[in-house]
Amino acid sequence: MVNSLKDTTTLSNGVKMPWLGLGVWKLKDDGETERTVLSAIEAGYRSIDTAAVYANEEGVGAAIRNSGIARDDLFITTKVWNSEQGYESSLAAFETSRKKLGIDVVDLLLIHWPVKGKYTETWRALEKLYRDGYVRAIGVSNFHIHHLNDVFVSGEIKPMVNQVEYHPLLSQQELRQFCQTNGIQLEAWSPLMQGNLDQPSLAEIGAKYGKSPAQVVLRWDLQNGVVTIPKSTKPGRLKENADIFDFALTQEDMEQINALNRNQRFGADPDNFNF
């Protein structure tokens, strides 16, 4: 059972990763990112998820430096963007990210999307960075089972994390099971369905515990063994998203939420994207 914001899952290589973190997609690098990350760290968050394409790694880096928290106590994730994929270009892209973040070692580096004809080469670059000690863990984002199988065949190290769109309307049971079987930690982006939380059953379940639909969904993620990174810029909402450790959903609640699945994506399908 996950009981606090400091609780971690242990990745396949032994690295500990917080179950709940902050995503910074769409946060601007005009001070907003630094302010938000500092608020989150103050509220107890220790995991921050950014990406090269978000164009706010410098803001995350400023917050890391100004937080007063030891670097080793924070877990920082970034990602290689699609246009930089390939072996040499991924190594160069990582170096750029590392400089923007202002840190020597990144805790988790992900391939952002499975770019056809490129992601296996990109994976080789991530393996090199991992072996050389520049990253503590490596993984992928938005990979279906067949993409993962490609990496298993062409690579030498299995991804430690697969970050995908995951929420009650898209519960990806087959992928979750596959990742579990292969020692890959599943992580949810857009866990709160980009605000589309108006499902009566979520409100009903929340009312039993004095919790909001958002809190119910985040608790469901954790009880399904899925790391989750909700995004918010509001200090109050950051605290609310983290206030999910004083209740537990019953098996019946979990099944009721599982039943909401309709394979509905708010983002692109990893088999069909054009960016």
Give the topology, please.
Blueprint (H helix, E strand, L loop, with lengths): L7 E3 L5 E3 L3 E2 L8 H11 L4 E3 L7 H10 L8 E6 L6 H15 L4 E6 L7 H13 L3 E7 L3 H10 L6 E5 L7 H9 L3 E5 L10 H10 L3 H11 L3 E2 L6 H8 L8 H8 L17
Parallel strand pairs: 3-4, 4-5, 5-6, 6-7, 7-8, 8-9, 9-10
Antiparallel strand pairs: 1-2
Helix pairs in contact: 1-2, 2-3, 3-4, 7-8
Notes on the structure:
The protein is an alpha/beta fold and 275 residues long. It has one domain (8-258): TIM Barrel. It is 38% helix and 15% strand. It contains 10 helices and 10 strands. The chain has helices at 32-42, 57-66, 87-101, 119-131, 145-154, 173-181, 200-209, 213-223, 235-242, 251-258, and strands spanning 8-10, 16-18, 22-23, 47-49, 75-80, 106-111, 135-141, 161-165, 185-189, 227-228. The chain has an 8-stranded parallel β-sheet with strand order 3-4-5-6-7-8-9-10. Strands 1-2 form a two-stranded antiparallel sheet. Strand 3 (22-23), helix 1 (32-42) and strand 4 (47-49) form a beta-alpha-beta unit. Helix 2 crosses helix 3, helix 3 (87-101) crosses helix 4 and helix 7 packs across helix 8 (213-223). The longest helix has 15 residues, at 87-101. It is globular. The model has no long low-confidence stretch (mean pLDDT 97).
